[in-house]
Design brief:
Length: 427
């Protein structure tokens, strides 16, 4: 029995499913999850000391690679001054200045502790500001596990086949209207039906929780126009895409200006951090300047701020996103070529440092319905065979993959060579 197997057996007695977040349990692919002992650069090392090239990157935050010295040193230095004060610090001002500089649509920002808190708070703010209750989200998009957002959600909610979780009152869910990603007519139909009731649209600007689906060129600008026409706010959820697709996020890449932005993952450099922010007039409606309540004992935590600040400063260096995108393109092309050699139908979507693999005969994959037509069984076999070859991909056909700046051409060539061996067995 491997150490991971032993640990998983113990964990299942003590923690539901043996994990503190569902997808980690390999529910999407079957088998025993690896217990990770340490990580460095592009590599993960499990409890049995096997090494893996990692394309999960802690589900997004580790864009610089694991155990990056700038972040590690910032955390150690901050820890020598105390772990939490529950009072304002200079670092929070520095962090707010940096984030609002990098994401110009954010006049003001508030820090929270997770992506879930960021989206939940942004939606409360949008509702409070507009005096409306309803919101629009898209099928297959995931915005954290707040009640009103667990409706036709992606990520683990998709993997587990529980788009509507028990425990979410129907009275909450009824305010959530679900439209089709990349389909503006479905959004117009929702607005036409409820012209004065919709507070906001929340959207993943590149969907990363139903695998990886980029927006069609007209989609995000179209959402902006519909929000303006019907007096709703546009919330762009950049928890995954922020500082990953481009330095200014997907909103910079696709040139669309939201009213509010949600951030998470990379903004904490690996520490638990989220943030939301946007137009000054809207943000001023938050307590204590305004009536919309939102708070957090550990929000703006000094260690988390130090980690995030160090991470963002590294990302500010020129050429970083060209490198990240170049590496991702190289991986995507390598995998496509290898699949073609073996007659395996494969679609690869990629933007900036994120990518998605789809085993499908289709030419393109543009919405949730397309994703559901992919060959999940083939993905499961592919996943396990790649793992045997030392490549750690997201353990679900419904999750995006993440490149880091610590990956190099050799890592990518090794990954493609592994995939070539695996494709030969998949036919
Ligand atoms: N929004 C998006 C787009 C996400 O991808 C996620 C998490 N994967 C969340 C929100 C929730 O973030 P967290 O898991 O930190 O609560």
């Amino acid at each position: 029995m491997s150490k991971s197997e032993k640990l998983f057996a113990q964990a299942q007695q003590l923690i539901p499913g043996g994990v503190n977040s569902p997808v980690r349990a390999f529910t999407g692919v079957g088998g025993v999850p690896l217990f990770i002992e340490r990580a460095n650069g592009a590599y993960l090392y499990d409890a049995d000391d096997n090494a893996y090239i990692d394309y999960v990157g802690s589900w997004g935050p580790m864009v610089l690679g694991h155990n990056h010295p700038a972040i590690r040193n910032a955390v150690i230095e901050a820890a020598t001054h105390g772990l939490s004060f529950g009072a304002p610090t200079a670092m929070e001002v520095d962090m707010a200045r940096l984030v609002t500089e990098l994401v110009p649509s954010m006049d003001m920002v508030r820090m929270v502790n997770s992506g879930t808190e960021a989206t939940m708070s942004a939606i409360r703010l949008a509702r409070g500001f507009t005096g409306r209750d309803k919101l629009i989200k898209f099928e297959g998009c995931y915005h954290g596990h707040a009640d009103h957002l667990l409706v036709k959600a992606g990520s683990g909610a998709l993997t587990l086949g529980q788009p509507n979780s028990p425990g979410v009152p129907a009275d909450f869910a009824k305010h959530t209207l679900t439209c089709t990603y990349n389909d503006l007519s479905s959004v117009r139909a929702a607005f036409t039906q409820h012209p004065h009731e919709i507070a906001c649209i929340i959207v993943e600007p590149v969907a990363g929780n139903m695998n990886c689906i980029p927006p069609e060129p007209a989609f995000l600008p179209g959402l902006r126009r519909l929000c303006d026409e019907f007096g709703a706010l546009l919330i762009i959820d950049e928890v995954m895409t922020g500082f990953r697709v481009a330095l200014g996020g997907a909103q910079e890449w696709y040139d669309v200006t939201p009213d509010l932005t949600c951030l998470g993952k990379i903004i904490g450099g690996g520490m638990p951090v989220g943030a939301f922010g946007g137009r000054r007039d809207i943000m001023m409606a938050l307590a204590p300047t305004g009536p919309v309540y939102q708070a957090g004992t550990l929000s703006g935590n000094p260690i988390a701020m130090a980690a995030g600040y160090a991470c963002l400063n590294e990302l500010k260096q020129t050429g970083v996103y060209e490198t990240l995108t170049g590496l991702t393109n190289q991986l995507a092309q390598g995998l496509l070529d290898a699949a073609k050699e073996h007659g395996i139908p494969l679609v690869v979507n990629n933007v900036g440092g994120m990518f998605g693999l789809f085993f499908t005969e289709a030419e393109r994959v543009t919405c949730y319905a397309d994703v559901t037509r992919c060959d999940v069984e083939r993905f499961k076999r592919f996943f396990h065979l790649m793992l045997e070859q030392g490549v750690y991909l997201a353990p679900s056909a419904f999750e995006a993959g993440f490149m880091s700046l610590a990956h190099n051409e050799q890592d990518i060539n090794d990954t493609v060579a592994a995939a070539r061996r695996v494709f030969a067995k998949l036919t």
